[in-house]
Amino acid sequence: MMSGTSIFSKEEFLKRAELAAEELSRWMKRGLMLAAGKTAGGEPYFTKAQLEVVAKIRTLLELGYDESGIEKIVRKVGLPAPEKGDLKVPQKLMTIGDLAQLCHINTRAINHWEEKGLLDPEARSEGGFRLYGPASVKRCKRILDLQNVGYTLEQIRSMSQLLADPQSLATEIKQKLRKSDLQTWEEQDERLKTRIGEVRVSVKRLEDLWKQRIRLLSGLKAQYARLEREAKKKSPKPAPAKA
Questions:
Q1: Which neighbouring-strand residues pair with 31?
Q2: Is residue 41 part of a domain?
Q3: Are 103 and 150 members of one domain?
Q4: Is residue 74 located within the same domain as residue 126?
Q5: Cβ-proximal residues to 62 (8 Å cutoff; 6+ apart), any chain
Q6: Which end of the chain is least crowded, N or C, by CB within 10 Å?
Q7: Residues 75 and 106 in one domain
Q8: The dihedral of CA 181, 186, 187, 193: what is its sign?
């Protein structure tokens, strides 16, 4: 989960910056400021960096510059860069509804996974809205994959390393480099390998069943078509119309 970064929806930002919606829209059209990014649903969001930009624009306005003059300044030299902390905000964030739609699940499942400690939002708006990034999509799909091969949520929680990005996990373990962490990794890999083998056997059985059903269905269709042709041959021909 992202910490140390305040994120605002458009409504929250307008309230915090004491801006009118028309004023913000005009500044953005002029290129005086930009949103930090947009959610997957296309809604803009803002950070403290944009609050700083608002303060700088107002300072220039107080010094006698009009918006056209500020626009020229922005085009030539720009405004000071935002604080480093705000640069960590991903450019594409999603609401819980966006995440559910993308992963083909419902929001209840996401809420349940969060309650179980399997998933955390990557950020929250100041109003408390949960926001998710690409890492959350990968995590949700991995939970679904593990459920599809028979893991319960309790098992997934107890094997939380399986939900982590392998490269990030390796970097984290490398910093400590404890034998117990290596053993845990190895044990979980062995269990996952066993489960994958079991799933492959099950898939093979289901494929054999599917192929058998396809062959039988094809034969039944051919038989039915033959019976239909024979029935047509045996059916009496209509009597010729009388003159």
A1: none
A2: yes
A3: yes
A4: no
A5: none
A6: C
A7: no
A8: positive
- Tokens representing residue 51 in the block: 């609050």
Domain that holds residue 196: 176-230
- Beta-carbon contacts of 149 under 8 Å, excluding residues fewer than 6 positions away, are 195, 196, 198, 199
pLDDT tens track for 124-173: 776 677 888 888 898 899 899 888 888 888 888 887 777 776 776 677 66
Q: What single string gives the DSSP state of each residue in 175-232?
A: HH--HHHHHHHHHHHHHHHHHHHHHHHHHHHHHHHHHHHHHHHHHHHHHHHHHHHHHH
In the chain the beta strands, taken as DSSP E runs, fall at 7-9, 37-39, 44-47, 92-93, 123-124, 130-131
* pLDDT tens figures, 30-53: 888 888 877 767 778 888 888 888
CATH of the domain at 125: 1.10.1660.10
What total number of domains does the chain contain? Answer: 3
Which residues are CB-contacts of 243 (< 8 A; sequence separation ≥ 6)? none
Write down the pLDDT at residue 224: 92
Same domain, residue pair 23 and 80 = yes
Choosing from 128, 163, 198, the residue where a domain stops is 163
Same-domain pairing of 61 and 108:
no
